[in-house]
Amino acid sequence: MHLLRCKRLVSRAAMVAGILAIASAFAVPAFAEEPEAQAPSAAPPIMTPVEPTPDTPPANAAANGETNPCFNGNGTIKEVLDACAAYIASGSTDKDRIVAAHGNRAIGLSATRDFDGAVAEMNEAIALAPSEPNLYLMRGAAYRAKKDFDKAIADVDEAIRLDATRGDYYMLRGMIFGDQGDLDRAVAELNQKIKLDPDSAPGYAKRAELLRQKKDYDGAVADFTEVIKREPGKAKNYTDRGWVYVLKNDLDHAMEDFTQALKVHENDASALVGRGVIKSRKGAPTDGSDDISMALKLEPGIVEEIKKMGVE
């Protein structure tokens, strides 16, 4: 588990950007960008994975001489939380590290789904550094996890007011609009994300998911194809496009994608279900039973998750 490396020679802006780069280290391992794909009781993590910026400090803080678990992440979540609390209470006058300590506590609290606590930590960080846009982004993501969408949007709006050049800000705002069912506004925000970050695989992936929900299957295929160009070694990228092909009833292309996904990861449950579904549709109804049974052993809830995409 990594946390932010904070040293006096690093600017506060760089340190806060580092929070974003490592925010997913504590994140709940769920579909962070697709709330309906989670268990009913689950909530999105405080921050979805974002792409490191050029000024982001190296992730391996311990290798650079950082010894405090609050900043190097060497320990359990509780140990990191306790170390950050101790640093905050220490009377340190290093504002940069205090801000980072609050941010890292927010990340840890998010991992335990204490989103109220995460918001409280970000309130403290913002009070110390009110001009840092990334702090508003993190608090906005915490509000999103709490489903307090008005406050989430207000925080992302403030982040964009402070710095309109960061594509991640538009991406989060688009995800919030998507949570509210406003798919047109959500897609518009992802368009801006991709305009600012044209090589962003997460940007194309999220827009593809939104286009799939809008039943713009050709657009979704095109975007997932862009994701695959950038991340050809991830099985999920092929299964994501494969299911859109299923929704288009283009079974041959879907089978190619599921087959490729299984070459990348032979026990990919979604790809196994996909291969089974296509075997059943192109042959006898029971032809895909073995694949689907194997997928259910690997992930018992996988069929229900796939049905949420509109697959019947």
Report on the architecture of this protein:
The protein has helices at 12-22, 69-72, 77-88, 95-111, 115-128, 133-145, 149-162, 167-179, 183-196, 201-213, 217-230, 235-247, 251-264, 269-282, 289-298, 302-307. It is mostly helical and 312 residues long. Helix 5 runs antiparallel to helix 6 (133-145). The chain is elongated and about 70 Å long.
Oligomer: single chain
Mean pLDDT: 84
Number of strands: 0
> What is the percentage of strand-forming residues?
under 5%
As a whole number of angstroms, the C-alpha radius of gyration is 21 Å
User: Structural class per helix/strand content?
Assistant: mainly alpha
The CATH topology of the largest domain is Serine Threonine Protein Phosphatase 5, Tetratricopeptide repeat
Q: What sort of overall outline do the alpha carbons produce when their principal axes are compared? A: elongated
List keywords for this structure.
single chain; 312 residues; mainly alpha; Serine Threonine Protein Phosphatase 5, Tetratricopeptide repeat; 16 helices; disordered N terminus
